[in-house]
Amino acid sequence: MTQAIRITADNDNELSTILSERVLIPVTCDHCEKDTDVSLETLKSTSTVMCEHCYHVRAFGQVEMDVVRNLLMRSGYRVNT
C-alpha cells in the first residue's frame, strides 16, 4: 500500500534535505577570484579544482570539504559521505 503519511515538524526535531552528488558548488579561484561551479562528486573524488576562466589549478583539501559539508549541514542539507 502506498499512501501518503502526514508528518508534523516539531521544534525538537530537525528536518534535512539529502543533496545529490551532482549539486554544483561554487569554488572561488585564488588567481582570478571568479567562481567555478564544481559538483560535490568531483570535490569528494579529486583533490584539485581547475578554474574555468583562467585554467588555474588549485588544491582542494579534506579540510575544505569538511567546511563545505558543515556549512551545508547547518543550512539543513545532508551530504552522503
Features:
2 helices, two-stranded antiparallel ribbon, alpha+beta, 81 residues, two-stranded parallel ribbon
Question: Would you kindly provide a written description of the structure presented here, covering whatever features stand out?
Answer:
- The protein has helices at 40-45, 62-74; strands at residues 17-18, 24-28, 35-39, 48-50, 57-59, 77-78.
- With 81 residues, it is an alpha+beta fold.
- Strands 1-6 form a two-stranded parallel sheet.
- The model has no long low-confidence stretch (mean pLDDT 84).
Topology:
Elements: E1 17-18, E2 24-28, E3 35-39, H1 40-45, E4 48-50, E5 57-59, H2 62-74, E6 77-78
Parallel strand pairs: 1-6
Antiparallel strand pairs: 2-3, 4-5
Q: What strand line-up does the widest sheet have?
A: 1-6
Structural class: alpha+beta
Instruction: Give me the count of strands.
Output: 6
Mean pLDDT: 84
Distance between the termini: 32 Å
Give the helix tally.
Answer: 2
Task: Give the percentage of residues in beta strands.
Answer: 15-25%
Choose one word for the global shape: elongated
Radius of gyration, in Å, reads 17 Å
Note the run of SSEs as H and E.
EEEHEEHE
Q: Work out the helicity level.
A: 10-25%
- What profile does the largest beta sheet have? 2 strands, parallel
Low-pLDDT stretches are none
